[in-house]
Amino acid sequence: MAESAEGLGTIPEHERILQEIESTDTACVGPTLRSVYDDQPNAHKKFMEKLDACIRNHDKEIEKMCNFHHQGFVDAITELLKVRTDAEKLKVQVTDTNRRFQDAGKEVIVQTEDIIRCRIQQRNITTVVEKLQLCLPVLEMYSKLKEQMSAKRYYSALKTMEQLENVYFPRVSQYRFCQLMIENLPKLRENIKEISMSDLKDFLESIRKHSDKIGETAMKQAHQQKTFSVALQKQNNIKFGKNMRINNDRILEERNEIVLKHALEEEDENEEEVLTVQDLVDFSPVYRCLHIHSVLGSEETFENYYRKQRKKQARLVLQPQSNMHETVDGYRRYFTQIVGFFVVEDHILHVTQGLVTRAYTDELWNMALSKIIAVLRAHSSYCTDPDLVLELKNLIVIFADTLQGYGFPVNRLFDLLFEIRDQYNETLLKKWAGVFRDIFEEDNYSPIPVVSEEEYKIVISKFPFQDPDLEKQSFPKKFPMSQSVPHIYIQVKEFIYASLKFSESLHRSSTEIDDMLRKSTNLLLTRTLNSCLLNLIRKPHIGLTELVQIIINTTHLEQACKYLEDFITNITNISQETVHTTRLYGLSTFKDARHAAEGEIYTKLNQKIDEFVQLADYDWTMSEPDGRASGYLMDLINFLRSIFQVFTHLPGKVAQTACMSACQHLSTSLMQMLLDSELKQISMGAVQQFNLDVIQCELFASSEPVPGFQGDTLQLAFIDLRQLLDLFMVWDWSTYLADYGQPASKYLRVNPNTALTLLEKVHRGMKDTSKKNNIFAQFRKNDRDKQKLIETVVKQLRSLVNGMSQHT
User: Fold this and answer.
1) Which InterPro entries has this protein been placed in (predicted)?
2) In-domain check, residue 257
C-alpha cells in the first residue's frame, strides 16, 4: 500500500517534469532531468514509462491531424495545376496583341514626324528669305566673333559679344536665329572661361612640377645670404677682438677668414646666376585668366577656384613619402616643395589684387605649419643617426629662414627644433654609450707607461693631469690612471662639440646655449657614462685589480670635470659665476660609480675568501695539533697581503674599509665553520689547531696590511673568535659563568648559545675519545669527573640561553 501510494504521488510529479521539458529551452533541460534521478530509486523507470506513453499520445495526435488535412491538400494541388494551363494561354494571347499594336503604331509615328519636319523647314525657309537682308549685318558680326575665337583673341571676342548684345541683337531679337545666337553667347563665354581655366590648370600643373626647383633656388639664395652675413659678422668680431678664446685665437681667425673667402667666392660665382620665381615660371596664364574672369564678372568664382586648387596642391605637397626619414634627400625634397609652393603664393599676393590675400596666405601657412610640425615630429622620431638628425636640423633652419624672409612666421619651427634637440641628444647619448663601451673593452686597466718626454706630453695634451711628484720622476714612469681616462675625456669634449653643432643657428642667446650644453653634458655623465661604468663594474670578468684601477680612474675623471666646465665656458663665453649657470654633475656621477666599485671590491674579496675557506680540510677528531697553521689559511693570508699592496693606490678609507671587511668576513666564516650544524663533534686537538689558524689571522691583522688603523682596531675583527677559543683553551668556565653579563667580563664577546653549541661538540668528541681509550682503567675516574663538569656547565649555559630567550 505504501508503495502504491508512493507511486501515485510520483505520477503527477512526472507529468510536471514532462510539461517542463516540452515548454523549456533545450539548454535548460539538464536541471529538470537531474530531478528525476534525485527522487526515489524506481522513479527513473516510471518516468521512462510515462515518457513513452506521452510520446505515443503525441504520435497519435500527429497522425490524426495529417489524416484530417490530407484530402484538402491534394485538392488544392489539383486546382493549381488546372490554373497554370489557363495562365499560359492567356500570356501568349497578351504577348501577340501587344506586338500587333506596336507594329501598327510605328508607321503612324514615322509619318507624323515627316510631316512635322517638312512644315518646319517650309516655315523657316520662308522666314530666312524674307528677312535675310535685315539679318546680314548680324551674321557678319557673328562671323567676326567666330574668327576672333579661332584666332584665340579672347579679349576682342568678349568686346564683340558686348557689341552684338547692345547694338545688333535688339534689331533682330524677334527672330529665332538671333535667340540662338543670344543663347550661344553664354556658351562662347563659358568656352572662353573653360579655355582660360585650362590654361590655368596647365599653369598649376607646371608650378607643381617646378616647386622643387623654385624651393631649391629660394633656399639656396637664403643659405648663401646667411652664410655671407655670418662670415662677415665673424670677421668683424675678430677685428674688434670679440669671441677670442685662449689658445684658439689664431685658429678661429684663420677659420673665419677661410669661411668668409669661400662665401665671397660663392657670392661672385652665383651673382650672375641669381634666378627669380618669374624666371622659372610663366605667370601670364594667371594674369590672363584673372582678367577674363574680371570681364565676365566671375572674379570671385575664379578666386575661389584658384584657392581651392592651391589648397589641394598644398595638401599633396605636405604629404610626405613613407621613407622620408631614411635619407636627408627625402627631407630636402619635402622642404623644397613646400618652399616653392609658398614662394609662388607670395608672388601672386604681390603682383595681383585680390586673387590671394594676406589673410588667406596666413591661414594656409598656419594649416601647413601644423601639418609640417606633425610630420617632422613623427618622422624625426624614427631617426637613430645623430648625423642625420643634425642635417635635418640644418635643413629646418634654412627652411625657416627662407620662409621668414618672405614674411611667414616660423617661431613654431624653432620651438620644434628644441624637441628635435632632445631627440638629437638621445641619439648622441646612444652613440656615445657604444663609444664608452668600446673604450672600456679596449682598456687594459693598468697605469699608462711613458718612456720619453714626448709620450708624456702626448698624454698631458689629451688629459689635464697635474702631479709635480710625477713630473720630477725619471723615465720610464707611469701615470696613475689607465688609457681609458684620456679617451673618455676626449670623447666627452667631442660630445660637447657635437651637441654644440645643433645649437648653432637656433637664434638663441649664449646663456641658453651654455645651459643646453651643460644639461646635455650632465645627461652624458649621469646617465650614459654612469650606466656604462656600473655595467663594467658588474661584469664577472672584472677582477679586484681592475676594480682598483676603475676607482683610480673615476677619481681622476672627477677632478677633470672642472676643466670640462672651463671648456664649455670658453665656447659660450658665459662665466661659471653666473647665477643661472648649471653645474656639471661629475662629482656625484663618479662618486656613485666609485661606491659601486668599492662595494664590488668588498663582494669579490669576500667571495675570494670563501673560495679559500672552502679548501679547508680540518681533521676534527685529531688528538694533537700539527704545530703550524693550516695551508689554506696561509695561502689566503698571502693572497690578502698581495691584494692590499695593490690597494695602496686607493683612497685610504677605501683600503681600510676593504681590509676591515675582509677580516670580519674571514672571522665570520671561521666562526660558522666551528658552529656548522653538520659538524657533530670536535676534539680538543682540533680546537688547538683551529686556534693556531686564528693566531695567524691575528698576526696578519697586527702587521697593518693597510696603513691608517689605530692601535689594534683591525684585530678586533677576530675578538669573538679569540675569546671563544681562549675560553676552551684555558677551560675557564667558572670565570665565564661568574662574570657573565658584566661590562668588565673577560669573555664579554662570547655568546652563551655559541659557547653551548661548541661545548656540546667538544663533549661528544671527548666521549668518543674515552670509548677508544677505555682500556686504560686509571683514566676512567678523571674522564668521568670531566664529563660531569661539562654536563654541569652545559646545564648552566642552557639556563643562560633560556633566560636570554625569555627576556627577548
Assistant:
1) EXOC6/Sec15, EXOC6/Sec15_C, EXOC6/Sec15_C_dom1, EXOC6_Sec15_N, EXOC6PINT-1/Sec15/Tip20_C_dom2
2) no
